[in-house]
Amino acid sequence: MAPVRELTVGQVAMRSGVAVSALHFYEARGLIRSHRTAGNQRRYGRDVLRRVAIIRVAQEVGISLAEIAAAFQSLPEGRTPTREDWNLLSTAWRDGLDHKISQLKKLRDGLTDCIGCGCMSIDKCPLRNKEDRLAREGTGARRLVLPSPRSRGEGARRADEGQR
């Protein structure tokens, strides 16, 4: 017997481990596609299983659906993403993930210390952030928030030098 080329929404849900409602949501966001039968039922190509797997992995590591959708624009429609396709997607996400990892480590390591917010209410703040000098570098928790890769300027260089 020849393998089934198209899957119902229930079959995709069962094979992928994703709820039917999530598949409908992904489809509404343009992440996956189906077509309708003469009876108005959704049918998916088998490539949707790998696309759903990529969505789940990417979301698990904190990549937004908007970023996933943008990355999927580079994939050809109607065929299963290949190892090379996955390599291109994951390489494109690597810098953002490295930044998030650095941010999480910095947050974890600094949770019990002055965060550089300018409140001056913790007893260490006058020692670590005397007269709120960190305010010159910008708003927010200056000691815990790393600048994004897109906005790395003078303050980011100073922060990096201070970590060495």
From TrEMBL:
SUPFAM superfamilies, per the entry = Putative DNA-binding domain
Where are the compositionally biased (Basic and acidic residues) regions?
A: 151-164
Any one Pfam family match given in the protein's UniProt record, by short name: MerR-DNA-bind
SMART domains from the UniProt entry: HTH_MERR
* InterPro entries linked to this entry: DNA-bd_dom_put_sf, MerR-type_HTH_dom, MerR_fam, Redox-sen_tscrpt-act_SoxR, Tscrpt_reg_MerR_DNA-bd
Q: Which residues form the HTH merR-type domain?
A: 6-74
Q: What NCBIfam families does the record tag this protein with?
A: SoxR
Q: Answer yes or no on keyword Kinase.
A: no
Q: Which Gene3D superfamilies match?
A: 1.10.1660.10
Q: What is the recorded name of this protein?
A: Redox-sensitive transcriptional activator SoxR
Could you tell me the superkingdom of the organism this chain comes from?
Answer: Bacteria
Outline the segment boundaries, as ranges, of region: Disordered. 138-164
Cite the entry's keywords alphabetically. Answer: 2Fe-2S, DNA-binding, Iron, Iron-sulfur, Metal-binding, Transcription, Transcription regulation
